[in-house]
Design brief:
HTH_MarR-typ; 6 helices; Arc Repressor Mutant, subunit A; single chain; mainly alpha; two-stranded antiparallel sheet
Length: 140
């Protein structure tokens, strides 16, 4: 791996875009195999930590436009992967959560994605991998 100093490296936006494309290329076949879209998987991951009080809160947490999220939620609900239940405290609000099938799918996709990530990160030393993941987490 090259050492970069000064202006000899590509801009961060270019590097992140290249990495993003590699990740998407790796993830698309996994998602297709599991029958879920990238946004569908993002919703499943967003709900993996527990129910969300509103669709707007979910959209904000995964960086999605709440109006474009509705058909994705409808599809996931039709497949029995998520539930939208009225909030007992405010019946105008829908609580969103994973069903047991949704949790199983989320974990299965995540396991396959993580295996792909391991392959992608395979050329890095353990120390470089840990530093990369810490830096990525801090910057994101």
């Amino acid at each position: 791996m090259a050492e970069y100093e000064g202006d000899e490296r590509a801009d961060l936006g270019v590097l992140v875009m290249r990495l993003g494309r590699r990740l998407l290329d790796m993830e698309q076949p996994i998602l297709a195999r599991h029958g879920v879209s990238m946004w569908g998987y993002a919703v499943l991951c967003g709900l993996a930590g527990g129910p969300m009080r509103t669709q707007a809160a979910l959209a904000a947490s995964i960086g999605a436009d709440k109006t474009r999220l509705i058909p994705i939620l409808d599809g996931l609900q039709e497949r029995g992967l998520i539930e939208r239940e009225p909030d007992p405290a405010d019946r105008r609000v829908r609580l969103l959560g994973l069903t047991s099938d949704g949790r199983r799918l989320q974990l299965a996709v995540q396991a396959d994605v993580r295996a792909g990530e391991e392959e992608l990160l395979g050329d890095l030393t353990t120390e470089d991998r840990a530093a990369f993941l810490r830096a990525l987490d801090a910057l994101s």
